[in-house]
Prior knowledge:
The chain is of the alpha/beta class. The chain contains 16 helices and nine strands.
Amino acid sequence: MRSILVVLACLVLAACATPGAPPADPASLFLDSAFRSKPIPADPPVLAPSDAMRRYLANDIAGELRGQGKLRGLVTALESNAHLKLEYDSIVTRTAAEAFDARAGNCLSLTVMTAALARELGLTVSFHRVLTDPVWTRSGDTLFSNGHINIILGGYQSNDHSVYRGVKGVIIDFMPSAELRRQRSHEIQEHTVIAMYMNNRAAETMRAGSLDEAYWWARGAVMQDPRFLEGVNTLGVVYSQHGDLAQAERVFRYLLRVEAENVSAMANLVGVLKRQGRETESVALRERLKTIEAQPPFYFYDLGMTALRANDYKGARDYFHRELRRNAYYHEAHFGLAVAYLGLGEAREAREHLATAMEMSTNRDEQNLYAAKLAWLRAQRKP
């Protein structure tokens, strides 16, 4: 029976920004000599608009943009079958220009296409990772986890035309049947979006049987954002598929040092250990994995928040620590942990986790909030 590998890089879209401590030297995870060189761009033009896109804005929907305002006009064009006539296509991840030409793409492709159009109009753009249970699909011996990303467009200036349906911005979500009202999400940065694109391309080329090309795409994803752990995981899967089991084990153990309960890395390591004939270690790790998978995502974070509301700071501290074993650098968990430590009178630990929350946040308002609280803490007498 062949082992099944887990690639946390979806073919629908790779969308998990996991900010955390990257390796001191990302190159330490690479094994270039084992793969044939492939012409993979170091900085692919994922969000670059094409001349055709500019002509579309200047000519095809110019009337809507003038009459409705840039934000509302663009959203109308995206929604209308009379304009772009977009189709959802999960087969391949495209750049913004490629998705526009094809009038089709997966969530990531259509999201970056929208971002490129919006920026040409001077609208504000923010990318958001949607926090949901992953949807799994299988191709051969490999499982693919399908994550999700969407985008929020905002007005470029304060006037009536920048307002869409009473709000200063609008969520654009291309996932079929997406339920926006119940989504949990957080903002991610552009270099993470590019890393997701490269990670998707790694998964797609690996599925097509081109391990050499998959390696260079995965390598590029790690270089773009070493804190995007799904890219690191995909790199480990490429090594495993290529037969470089020692290097694969090294990568998966690195991931488990960062997130001790990273289920993808753990599941992949189970398979690698089994292929190396280390059955006892493989079985023990598989049993541990079963206990971790029994809890849904953010289970311990939610328990921590409940404990905080009850002023149970010790319980909150323990729950947030447990959450960080699965999502090591989730800034809201670090902030919750800082509040718990402050409630316990442990100001040094509170300052440390508040500083981490500020560093890992990608939202300016949250960063300013954390910075203000950190400044206040530092002004207090140290224990």
